[in-house]
User: Fold this.
Amino acid sequence: QRSSSLIHVVAGANPNPAANTTGCSIVIYGTQGALINITNTFAYQPDVNITTIDPPRGQYGTVVTIRGTELLGNPPESVESVLFGTVLSTVLNASDSEIVVVVGPSINVGLVSVTINLESGAAFTRTDAFRYLQEGDIISVVPSSGQEGTRVVISGINLFGGGTNLTKVLLGDEEATIVSMNNSIVVLTAPNATAAENLTITLTSNSGAETSRVASWQFLEVGNITNVQPALGQYGTFV
Assistant:
């Protein structure tokens, strides 16, 4: 945007990205050859510097912490968006040294760049900084129904969702007890619950990622012994 009294421009690259660059002059060139030179009128501040991405790999739902310096720009401003490749993430909180986001869904796997976009329009990228993994997939649930105490084996691919373990397994809305786990097999015992069918099984990783399978579990009505006949007997008695 420009007029005889106002010109908007986008600053070019900082000649010294890690430090202040003072004493910069602004030079305006007219279309007819006129030149206006205003000395010592602009100072570059240090650029955004992304130092670490933790964890550096994951899938949709993974909680990622971006650390660095001047992450909100200088002077500080709000984060407009954070992109993993071209995929928009959800920003949970942001400070000058740390930005926490939830990774968005991607149909591709592999390395992508991480880009921080600020409200001013400034954008800063760290290339090949995050690896999208194949999303977790529950292949089988055996048995697919039961009641309190039923031992259930869940088999699948990348069940940890890029993390190192699971923090929670839900059968519907009820939390099960994890007996053992690895990235492809999880063994658990079902909790006490009222009878219900077509329930979703959800695995939550310590990375924040979730892997689920809909309509894959049924809570059966809990058995109830109403009568024992005879009430007395010995070895060999038919009861």
Notes: The radius of gyration is 29 Å. Residues 230 and 236 are 12 Å apart (CA to CA). The chain has a mean pLDDT of 90. The first strand starts at residue 21 and ends at 29.
